[in-house]
Amino acid sequence: MHALLRTSVIGRVISGVVFSAALAVSAAEPRTADSRDLPPVDQVAGPPPGTVVFASPDPGRVSCASPSIAILPDGSYLVSNDTGGRTLVHRSADRGVTWRQLAEVRDQKWSMLFLHRGALHLIGVAAKAGHLIVRRSLDGGRTWTDPTDARHGLLVSRRYWSIGSKITNPYSGYAWLYTPHHQRNVLSLTSSADLTTGEERCRLLRYREGQVVTKAESRVGFQYVDWQFDGPDLIAACRTSWAGANYHDANFITFHRVKNFRTLTLADSPSALGQ
Fold first, then answer.
1. How far, CA to CA in Å, does 222 sit from each of 38, 167, 216, 239, 252?
2. pLDDT digits (tens, 9 = 90+) for 69-86
3. Residue of 138, 153, 185, 206 with fewest CB within 10 Å of its CB?
4. Where are the alpha helices (DSSP H) in the chain?
5. How many angstroms separate the CA atoms of 71 and 78, rounded?
6. pLDDT reading at 28 higher than 80
7. pLDDT of amino acid 111
8. Which of 116, 130, 258 is nearest to 188 (CA)?
């Protein structure tokens, strides 16, 4: 049995060596022409099939992508494409026979044209920040709106969100009972565009904000929040101490909804509790 196994293994090794050698010989031999071979790209000459809408001024350096097409109510055709971090819009008034550039939309790529309620729209991605954006044109694609916020074309922002405790305890000493790490009574919504710098967007829950908080005295805490996106809102489950043994040893699990969280500012923070 062992001899049979060894023979089988040796056979496979020999076969592998022979196959590898055959590949090496094949690779070393010059390849002969075959009638089925396609000509290399550099032998293609003349214009491409179809009608040219956009041609790169420097194919080795400038490429184009993301074509989209739409038919306007007046019968004209529009085609968009991106190149160099911008989107170009072209128009044909003779059913695609000739084309001319109509507009240049800066800082947008991967776009698609579509009509909605009689207005022309261009949905895509901001080339620099990566936000999902949509623009609208009321003059057939000549001019376009600018996406500024969630209510005006900024559909999804590439931002990172978090809910956590904000330290507002004014004590700066080193006494264990009074150090700010005990504070769990201010819950804030924060955001970052790069995970390096962040900003506080809104304070969601506040109790005795700005006061010295100690573990021995404080019996209120909002902490260890888990949350999910729910459309324009955030939903969250919170470990809440509300007249608990202390701020840390919670006596409730509470549910919270943060409506339209992307539009919130510090001015939207609710009134503080327990002041």
1. 68, 12, 16, 6, 10
2. 999 999 999 999 999 989
3. 138
4. 2-28
5. 6
6. no
7. 94
8. 258
Task: Give 273's DSSP letter.
Answer: B
Same domain for 218 and 127: no
Q: Looking at the structure, tell me whether residues 96 and 130 fall in a common domain.
A: yes
Tokens representing 39 are 């000509």
Q: Are 79 and 99 in contact (CB under 8 A)?
A: yes
- 172 C-beta neighbours (distance < 10 Å), count: 8
> Do residues 170 and 258 share a domain?
yes
Predicted confidence at residue 24, as pLDDT, reads 41
Residue 179 shares a structural domain with residue 261: yes
Quick one: DSSP state of residue 242?
Answer: E
Mark residue 95 as left, alpha or beta (left: phi above 0; alpha: psi -120 to 50; beta: remaining): left
- Domain residues for the domain of 141 are 58-156
Out of 105-114, 141-150, 237-246, which region has the weakest mean confidence (pLDDT)?
A: 237-246
**pLDDT attached to residue 20:** 39
Residue 91 in this model has a pLDDT that exceeds 90: yes
Give buried/exposed letters for 256-269 (b at 16+ CB in 10 A, else e).
bebeebbebeeebb
What's the start-to-end Cα distance of the chain, in Å?
A: 86
Task: Copy the structure tokens of residue 268.
Answer: 């939207």
Mean pLDDT of the chain: 80
Comparing 148-152, 200-204, 211-215, the range with the smallest average pLDDT is: 211-215
Q: Which of 117, 139, 156 is the last residue of a domain?
A: 156
> Based on the domain organization, do 134 and 166 belong to the same domain?
no
Q: Identify the bridge partners of residue 202 per DSSP, sorted by sequence position.
A: 189
Last residue of a domain, one of 139, 156, 173: 156
